Amino acid sequence: MLKSSVRPCRTMCAVYWFLDLIRAAPNILKAASRRLFSATRVQAVSTMAADEEVVGTVKDQLAKLFEESLRVTVPDQTDTDPLIAACNPRFGDYQCNNAMSLWTKIKGTGSAFTGPQPVGQAIMTNLPRSEMIESCSIAGPGFVNVKLSRQWIAKSIQKMLIKGIETWSPKLRVKRAVVDFSSPNIAKEMHVGHLRSTIIGDTLARMLEFSNVEVLRRNHVGDWGTQAFYKASKQRFDSDPGFKERAQQAVVSLQGGKEKYRKAWSQICEISRKGYEKVYQRLGIVLEEKGESFYNPYIPGVLEELGKKGLIEESEGARVIFIEGKKYPFIVVKSDGGFNYASTDLTALWYRLNEEKAEWMIYVTDVGQREHFEMLFTAAKRAGWLPPGDNSYPKANHVGFGLVLGEDGKRFRTRSTEVVKLVDLLDEAKSRCKAALVERGKAEEWTEEELEQTAEAVGYGAVKYADLKNNRLTNYTFNFDQMLNDQGNTAVYLLYAHARICSIIRKSGKDVEELKKTGALVLEHPNERALGLHLLQFAEIVEEACTNLLPNVLLWGQRRRQADSCCVKRLQRSCGNASIYLVFGQSTRYDILGEDSSHLQKDFDNYVWAHDYRYYAQCIRHCEKVKDCARTVQYRSDI
């Protein structure tokens, strides 16, 4: 039991103990969960129903309550879904933001309501009683702010400790997804350019798997083309026109199934496969290879289908699909009759939709391939494979990422300007970690095997974390000294913190399993409640990271909110009293009108906290003489 009379440092250590159980003991939690379920099968149905209330995110549970209130408040608006989001702590824990949009729909229809604030007041009044809500209040034009019950927060965390963190996994709308990542080329060693796709793709797959999505992890290797015997042949391919022509014809023969080419190709693929499989083992990456060659037998049928639909046209000896707004066509058959990336990727997309029955296709490559995937997805929509909108399933997304830079601000390379091999990079990370451990005297305390295992765990973890803590769209500078620092925002610091927490648990002499069954969690100190609420929002952060395909949200959810709050102040200083337009995506716009700076700040703050953080915010100072904006300030939250 945690009590506020305990000194703050000891109190927080005790709370972190619970956090550690959530984060570091999945096997213990699963074992406890099995024992608990076997012992409680005879419980009453009412108890089971009470337990089920914990399933799903806090937003989901609040949405159910506000859905009941909305049915009573505006019975004619049957298509209204509750708009629930975490809000600024100055106002509460969560808020319902339906009042303004509802007022827009019902004003002028003879409704008894006189504005958005009375609508919000009615929504709050009609809210059914629940143990999860401590209090509610109205802010601005009808925002219903909710403060969660301290006892309910503690009870929810306690149940999670017993049943396991899996009970907190978010519920996504998709059941099966393909994550296409890593995708090295056969006959070419994996290099630093494959690092981000491999790390980001694996993380997205893990996030979706935690969210109960069946994930097909696909390694779309480049095993079909002119890259055989890569380095030497590439130089000759670029300098010798005759060799280039023979190589291109050899590719056509290979795709046509000619035996001698197939035999050489198979040997090259096997050697390459053994090489990059070692990298995956070191990084803990699991992938199923389905390279370009896998889809070759399906290409003619797919192209025939597209031709019958009138999408494919002849152009300068090649067969192409013209995409509106693009300077060049999407070439699906080259002038020499060979297939290419476009024909293979179209076929792979068709296969994933029709054979693998995937609802979400996620392609993790560098931002330089953005246009290729835009054309691919547009062609698929024209073919009727994908719906025209971006928010309906099945759907496809390109997850682009920036470059890995050296300290000179250029692409990360060796001193001889060669691309850095991924194996060499991992070796260096492990070597540096091992040297640091030896310097700390660990070689005398641990066995050589323990030293090696720890160096690998810390070194590889540091490389992964240095990538994942950044927004994937930005470039980042690769610096061993920074990523292996045991102070600041690094994996090394987090690992040491975790080790210290585990040490505290061991030294406490307490039986963790017994404590979970007999102890009671009481969140009396404000910091304890704040941490408890933060833990409860774990599932929502995972859901946001999955929805927006941004792994860094998992690491920086709270910091992003603080940054958004700073954004409010910057925009206010820039624009003063103004109308504010928040634009989410391409179609939805919310208007907020402020009479003075304080009102403007408050309303804008509410909206910032109420919606997806990937927004564009525009402050517009109206000009009486012209219809257009006199001044526009644009800010993108991209933490």
Automatic annotation (TrEMBL):
GO BP terms, alphabetized: arginyl-tRNA aminoacylation; post-embryonic development; reproductive structure development
Matching PROSITE patterns: AA_TRNA_LIGASE_I
Gene Ontology CC: cytoplasm
Family annotation (CDD domains): ArgRS_core
UniProt keyword Aminoacyl-tRNA synthetase, yes or no: yes
Domain DALR anticodon binding: 494-571
Pfam family, one: tRNA-synt_1d
Catalytic activity: tRNA(Arg) + L-arginine + ATP = L-arginyl-tRNA(Arg) + AMP + diphosphate
EC number(s) recorded for this UniProt protein: 6.1.1.19
UniProt domain Arginyl tRNA synthetase N-terminal: residue ranges: 60-148
Alphabetized GO MF terms: arginine-tRNA ligase activity; ATP binding
Keywords: Aminoacyl-tRNA synthetase, ATP-binding, Ligase, Nucleotide-binding, Protein biosynthesis
UniProt keyword Glycoprotein, yes or no: no
InterPro entries with a match to the protein in the record: aa-tRNA-synth_I_CS, Arg-tRNA-ligase, Arg-tRNA-synth_N, Arg-tRNA-synth_N_sf, ArgRS_core, DALR_anticod-bd, Rossmann-like_a/b/a_fold, tRNAsynth_Ia_anticodon-bd
Sequence similarity: Belongs to the class-I aminoacyl-tRNA synthetase family.
Protein name per UniProt: arginine--tRNA ligase
Organism: Rhododendron griersonianum
